[in-house]
Design a protein that fits this description.
This protein is mainly alpha-helical. The protein has one domain (about 5-85): Arc Repressor Mutant, subunit A (Orthogonal Bundle), CATH 1.10.10. The protein is built from 5 helices and 3 strands. It has helices spanning about 5-10, 15-25, 30-40, 40-55, 75-90; strands at about 30, 60, 70-75. Strands 1-3-2 form a 3-stranded antiparallel sheet.
Length: about 90
Amino acid sequence: MVDLKLIGFVARAKRRKETLNLLSNHTQLSQPEIMRALKQYKSHNSTTIKELSQKDLIKCINPEDRSFKFYKITKKGRNILREVFKVSGE
């Protein structure tokens, strides 16, 4: 079943879509790597990661580490990203 609210949540924010797309092409990335690759400010990057994590679209794979966390896209995140690309025609 397609979650239209979640598709809209990702599609309406360029940073969310870019972050999911970046993570879909890598096994895992740290927050600084994501920030550099997307040329984002730290505050924007932190907010985006928090939003995507809360929606279970990405997952921190080392939550016990307080200073250098790694993230990966979840299966749910891949499915939503695929639907976002369908809707946007990309």
